[in-house]
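To: structure subgroup
Subject: Chain for Friday's discussion

All,

I'm putting the inputs and outputs inline so they're searchable in the archive.
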Amino acid sequence: MRAVMLHAEHDLRVEDFAVGDLGPRDVKLRVRNGGICGSDLHYYQHGGFGTVRLRHPMVLGHEVAGEVLEIGAEVTAVRPGQTVAINPSLPCDACRFCLMGMQQHCLDMRFYGSAMRMPHVNGAFRQELVCTEAQAVPADMPFERAAFAEPLAVCLHAAHQAGDLMGARVLVTGAGPIGALLVMVARAAGAAEIVATDLIDAPLAVVRKLGADAAFNLRTTPDALAPFAADKGQFDVVFEASGSPAAIAGAFAVLRPRGTLVQVGNGSGEATIAMNTVVAKEFNLRGTFRFHAEFGQAVQALASGRLDVTPLLTEIVPMDQAVRAFELAGDRARAMKVQLAF
């Protein structure tokens, strides 16, 4: 079969790749759709992010959905012909964090398309994939919608980190695919007011359609959030989805005392925090990393139609045009979410 393999930054190739053996608790899939994630773009554009670097060729991709082709002798959860969303996480379920119910912090995690470990874990941008039964989640919906389960799960976990959003005033900084999904999640959770910011107009137009009450371009109107700094800050919760140190600093000015900032964006991995402000305003600073139980919740939300992700999908590109797809996905003025079709 064929797979989308990254050899080095800007060296993306579609080439032959082995399918893998089918074990008794495994599922063989025909991958249909796969979304290009921000981490895929970091690998493609920069060869990695932070201290995580590509050290040998690796298949990219972890936002995928497909069709069951064959099941192992002991598989009962899915059947051939069924549509499934693929959970890219494979925790060991034996380390201390897995036993504590924090599988996203597994000490022996195998996550599709990740160069965090050596050898790297190949991703799911391939025509066929063998995964465990637990990773194949039944998804009664079109493939392109099911492929949004992974990024939506990231946002659901971030929302859980924030706590109850009912009646909250929420700021989302960074209106890329994750920021846009966070707007949808916050609205569905009962937020009373949602404001989004970015430095580009195109994604801001999308988040307005998805439920943001206001959306500001801070490059053209840098003082747009100034009114929200009154009386020590107006927002109850900030989802910082850009990874920008400037966005974090700006959020501190508009987050009320004892408000919660959930850091979703990774960016460069380095930022200076005004600790005197954290102390004086008694902030709750929360990180958020991947997901676990939220993947199944994301599939359910998408299948039910409660969350309509259709406005986020810019284009579905054939896998043999993977380079064009990655170039398009990297242009935030033209694209929100680009998927590959396998």
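Points worth raising on Friday:
Residues 149-162 form the longest helix (14 residues).
The chain has a mean pLDDT of 96.

D.
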